[in-house]
């Protein structure tokens, strides 16, 4: 079997996920000769053709698409703004609710726009009010989104924020050894509308304003950069969800070229690196991607990032018993964090069904933390919220897709002491 990295090459935005089928509407729009103009923002083409054969997800609408659509329906362009307000500000997922749009227009919109690209399949809450949303997508696949209540600032922001952990792909090709999302491999990229739809849907179902996003759910966001960037624009724009760029954190397993590309994007977003090992030897055992982009290459990209952004970097470090919790790793990690002025989030390993690892005893976790602090590094030891609701990313989706017969086999990773395939 080819390695997961080879199956889905880092640097490649990947397939649209429509295996052997039609390209998605946004991709058709980019074809040469398309009469519909596209505009370039953040280095990517944004679709403005509302007349795609498939219905466009409402949560992919921009002022340009909404206005063009209304003009096609012989409506004034400002009706497009009304439509955007219903979708993003009022979170309406039913055209019947859009009372200031004429009835006939609502009927025509129904044919072209999908007001609810994600269906809520399950919502779980835990005693500490962490909530998990399981969404069913148009092709029967599932993704998860987790709403985390206010907690001490993990990514450099203020502490009183409601954070939503957003997915960017169905499954994941990167097979990090601690992660349930990679167990069944990669299925497809999420569309821009599906990424934004998680935020709109979670706000609608929770009734709360979400003001902090972490792209740390299922999938490697930087492997889906072409769809992620337009989503960031919608999430950030005043006509969209109006979430400040400083309150969005992209988490990556370490795709160095994409980090450099994202550094050029003129948004002060934050970056978190799933490091989980301070030396190549240890990181190779946990994260297969390290073989393609070893620590030296990753840190080169992080220097590029620092030259372009004012935001503090975050290193995520899952503490795994007898794997990466040694004091030698703490010392090395401390040096690396100091060099890049990065903050370190230590996360005790969260048990994943089918994986062999365990979290270290509390005393060792504290010792690791104090080693970092002794070196002047800003570090926190996170107590996982939602531990009691299968909050480890990807577990709920695995259960649901296995029950639906969509997943028949999972590729359980080898124990940590084995080298990855
Ligand atoms: S940690 Fe992220 S990149 Fe790694 S397998 Fe899980 S979802 Fe993919």
Quick structural overview:
With 421 residues, the protein is α/β, with parallel strands linked by helices. It is built from 13 helices and 16 strands.
What does this structure look like?
The chain has 421 residues and is of the alpha/beta class. It folds into 2 domains: 23-114, DNA polymerase, domain 1; 119-403, Aldolase class I (TIM Barrel). It is 32% helix and 16% strand. The protein has a 10-stranded mixed β-sheet, with helices on both faces. Strands 1-2 form a two-stranded antiparallel ribbon. The radius of gyration is 21 Å and the shape is elongated. The chain starts with a helix and ends in an 18-residue tail after the last helix.
Question: Which features would summarize this protein structure in a list?
Answer:
421 residues, alpha/beta, DNA polymerase, domain 1, 2 domains, ten-stranded mixed β-sheet, two-stranded antiparallel sheet, disordered N terminus, disordered C terminus, binds iron/sulfur cluster
SSE blueprint:
Elements: H1 4-7, H2 25-29, E1 39-41, E2 44-46, E3 56-57, H3 63-72, H4 78-89, H5 103-112, E4 113-114, E5 119-125, E6 131-136, E7 142-148, E8 163-165, E9 169-171, E10 186-189, H6 192-206, E11 212-215, H7 225-236, E12 248-252, H8 256-263, E13 270-274, H9 280-286, H10 295-308, E14 314-319, H11 327-340, E15 343-348, H12 362-374, E16 379-381, H13 395-403
Parallel strand pairs: 3-4, 8-11, 11-12, 12-13, 13-14, 14-15, 15-16
Antiparallel strand pairs: 1-2, 5-6, 6-7, 7-8, 9-10
Bound molecules: iron/sulfur cluster (SF4).
């Amino acid at each position: 079997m080819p390695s997961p990295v080879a199956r889905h090459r880092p640097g490649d935005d990947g397939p649209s996920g429509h295996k052997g089928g039609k390209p998605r509407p946004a991709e058709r729009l980019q074809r040469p000769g398309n009469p519909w103009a596209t505009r370039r923002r953040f280095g990517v083409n944004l679709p403005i053709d509302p007349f795609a054969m498939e219905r466009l997800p409402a949560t992919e609408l921009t002022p340009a698409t909404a206005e063009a659509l209304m003009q096609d329906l012989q409506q004034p362009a400002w009706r497009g703004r009304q439509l955007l307000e219903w979708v993003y500000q009022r979170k309406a997922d039913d055209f019947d609710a859009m009372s200031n749009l004429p009835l006939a227009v609502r009927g025509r919109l129904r044919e072209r726009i999908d007001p609810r690209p994600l269906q809520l399949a399950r919502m779980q809450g835990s005693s500490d009010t962490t909530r998990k949303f399981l969404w069913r997508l148009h092709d029967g696949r599932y993704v998860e989104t987790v709403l985390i209540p206010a907690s001490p600032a993990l990514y450099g922001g203020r502490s009183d924020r409601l954070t939503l952990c957003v997915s960017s792909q169905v499954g994941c090709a990167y097979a990090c050894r601690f992660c349930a999302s990679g167990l069944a491999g990669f299925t497809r990229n999420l569309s821009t509308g599906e990424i934004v739809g998680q935020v709109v849907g979670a706000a609608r179902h929770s009734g709360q304003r979400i003001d902090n996003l972490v792209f740390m759910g299922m999938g490697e966001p930087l492997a889906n950069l072409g769809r992620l960037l337009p989503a960031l624009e919608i999430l950030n724009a005043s006509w969209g969800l109006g979430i400040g760029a400083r309150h969005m954190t992209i988490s990556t397993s370490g795709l160095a070229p994409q980090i450099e590309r994202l550094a050029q994007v003129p948004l002060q977003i934050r970056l978190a690196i799933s490091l989980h090992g301070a030396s190549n030897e240890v990181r190779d055992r946990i994260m297969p991607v390290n073989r393609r982009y070893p620590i030296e290459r990753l840190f080169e990209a992080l220097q590029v990032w620092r030259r372009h952004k004012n935001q503090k970097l975050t290193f995520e470090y899952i503490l795994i018993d007898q794997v990466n919790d040694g004091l030698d790793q703490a010392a090395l990690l401390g040096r690396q964090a100091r060099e890049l002025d990065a903050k370190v989030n230590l996360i005790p390993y969260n048990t994943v069904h089918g994986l062999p690892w365990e979290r270290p005893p509390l005393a060792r976790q504290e010792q690791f933390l104090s080693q970092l602090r002794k070196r002047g590094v800003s570090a926190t030891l996170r107590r996982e919220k939602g531990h009691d609701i299968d909050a480890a990313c990807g577990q709920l989706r695995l259960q649901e897709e296995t029950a639906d017969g969509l997943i028949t086999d999972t590729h359980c990773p080898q124990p940590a002491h084995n080298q990855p395939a």
